[in-house]
Amino acid sequence: QRRLQQAGVEAAAESLAFNLTVQFHVDHEKHLEAKRQKELEQQAALYGRICKQQEEHAAGARLLDRMLREEKSQVIQMITERRERREEEARAKQMEAHEQRTIATAHDLFLRHKVNKRNAQLEQKMQAWAQKMDDKFGKFSQAKEAVRLEAEAKR
Question: How far, in Å, CA of 143 to CA of 137, rounded?
């Protein structure tokens, strides 16, 4: 009976040792599985953060790209407006210079007309004076001739 008891105790000890070993291995596997699960969750969280950062970077890049396109568009528009303004100013200066030349030409023509008219008036006056002088000289010549003829007649 002692042997049976001893065998029973040994069998119970072996069974207990086996159960403890199995329980240890099960607990160890659970622990390893929990550890793997935790690592997977950490990797998933890290992947999620990386994806979120990539999305933020992509959104930032899109925003920056849009801002650069808008800035480029504004710069092009400013350059275009400045060029158009300079061209308009150049056209205005050309028109003003043309108007000034036209005014100067018209004024010059007016002054020439006035001078020509005055010269014509002076020419008429000079011809009238010359005619008057010719008439007076003619009368003087006739009187001189008459005096000479009279003097000859007296001689």
Answer: 9
What is the per-residue pLDDT for 101?
Answer: 95
Provide the whole-model pTM: 0.41
Could you tell me where the beta strands, DSSP code E, fall in 1-155? Answer: none
> What is the rounded CA–CA span in Å between residue 64 and residue 58?
10
DSSP state of 155: -
**Residue with tokens 């950062």, as numbered in its chain:** 53
Angle in degrees, CA 72, 76, 80, rounded to 5: 170
Longest dimension (CA), the chain: 222
The CB density around residue 32, as the number of other CB atoms within 10 Å, is: 10
Assigned token pair, 124 = 């008429």
DSSP class of 106: H
Digit-coded pLDDT (tens) for 18-63: 999 999 999 999 999 999 999 999 999 999 999 999 999 999 999 9
**CA distance linking residue 67 with residue 59, whole number of Å:** 12
Report d(CA 84, CA 77) in Å as an integer: 10
